[in-house]
Amino acid sequence: MSAAPTSTVAVQAAGVSKVFNEGLANEVTALQDIDLSVREGEFVSLIGPSGCGKSTLLRVIADLTHPTQGTIEVAGMPAAAAREQQRYGMAFQQAALFDWRTVRRNVELPLELQGWSKDRRQARAMELLEMVQLADFASHRPWELSGGMQQRVAIARSLAVDPPLLLMDEPFGALDEMTRERMQNELLRIREETGKSIIFVTHSIPEAVYLSDRVVVMSPRPGRITHVVPVDLGPRNEDTREADAFFDAVTAVREALRGHGGGTVRAKAGEV
Amino acid sequence: MGGRLRSVWPPLLIGFLFLAAWQLLVIVQDLKPYLLPAPSLIASNFFGDLGLMSSTAIYTGTTALLGLAFGTILGIVAALLAARFSIVNNIVTPLAAGLAAVPIIALTPILNNMFNITSRTPRVLVTVIIVFFPMFVNITRGLLQVQPVQLELMRSMNASPRTVLRILRIPNAVPFFFTGLKVAAPLAVIAALVAEYFGGPQEGLGSRIASSAANTAYGRAWAYVVASIILGLLFYLAVLAVERWTAPWVGHRRST
Ligand SMILES: Nc1ncnc2c1ncn2[C@@H]1O[C@H](COP(=O)(O)OP(=O)(O)O)[C@@H](O)[C@H]1O
Ligand SMILES: [Mg+2]
After folding, report:
1. Within an 8 Å CB–CB cutoff, is residue B166 touching chain A?
2. Edge-first strand listing for the sheet containing A224-230
3. Are residue A38 and residue A113 in the same domain, yes or no?
4. How many CB pairs under 8 A join A and B?
5. A34-87 tens-digit pLDDT
6. Which of A18, A31, A173, B110 is least surrounded, with the fewest CB atoms within 10 Å of its CB?
């Protein structure tokens, strides 16, 4: 697949494989022959059992580890360049906030590394804290916040340099169900406001369905994409979670996870 | 305030009861001062010449402080090198572990011969060496034991190793630094004091304890012991105060 940069593709993975400990007794094929393309502004979830390579795929896209084979493009440039130019923001299951910084200075961190002036980054951090509704907590320390609030700070931080792409690895995985649903709505609102492309790793089928335009189903040993389930629920609201179409999509993803042809079965190297 | 008072008076009461029992024991059993002097005798010696007590403590305290300062600086520099260059870490860390098992204080007579015995230098040197180990070991641990997810975050933000050191590793090491300092500060007092037992200037607590005991002035010897305890406590409390003031986040670990 040629790597012609297109303005409408946020992420393009072509023939990506990742083998850990190659040639050793504990060799693991974490990813095999992954083709994935994410349109600009699209919300794509990765779902699959533990160890199927979801985090590895995200880390390869983020250039936190190198693929053994294949190419990755982010925002029309190689993954390494995209990382160097801060074309994505990242959030993990752990909020990974720095205890010694206030909430505001945690959000400022990426801006600080980019050499923004103090005034500008303070203003920007406050703007983001407004967006995640934590402006009142700007001068608190991370440990004074609940898990959900910490995760909102982490999301604000990932948005700081206004990257076109968010990579999120089970960001709500450690939250209770109620907080989780609230955070999902918040994330959709932020997406609405900012128009980001989002790749979102989750274990939860309803979460994947509620958030996504497409759910990418993976299976382990070796980590492959087995199904891609398109989700067309229109704008989400209170009723979405109870709509028939929602349950249909949940069922489709569940069947795909079981290995049945519930979703659009994706031909190898075909169009996604 | 009431809460603080309530937490202060039980140890005070126990201390008082302990001293009273001690005093009673000495009187009832008619113990000789060389065996165990009465608290009243120690107190009269202590308060009888407060000026001498404090100037003696200041002499030893100065040795301890100098040793603590230089030992800490050395520990910081070595730890930074160990964190930056794995070669240094691979060589220095086992070496430090081995050397920590050596009774450094036993080097004092040798250092006394190497350096001018009439100066403070050999004592400061012994203290420096003793302070170095807990500082080095703890700071290195703090620099290296960062959460993997925080390292990934830094890398995702395109941070250079130097930036990671400044933004993540050094702040991360601060609680470890204070853990080391809480061990090292009282150790510095002990080292400075014990080093005085091996000859040299006679102004310090160690020298005075030894000479008072040798002159059968047991009440006085014990008064110097009390001054030593106070000095050690002061060092420890000073570390606590600095920690509270400079690193208020220490002790509040996040769950995620
Ligand atoms: N750094 C690594 N070294 C060796 N094996 C790894 C490493 N990272 C991940 N793996 C292996 O790769 C596979 C996929 O892991 P991961 O991407 O974390 O799965 P998921 O996020 O879907 O649970 C697992 O078998 C895991 O053990
Ligand atoms: Mg994972």
Report:
1. no
2. A88-91, A165-169, A197-202, A43-47, A214-219, A224-230, A264-265
3. no
4. 66
5. 999 999 999 999 999 999 999 999 999 999 999 999 999 999 999 999 999 999
6. B110
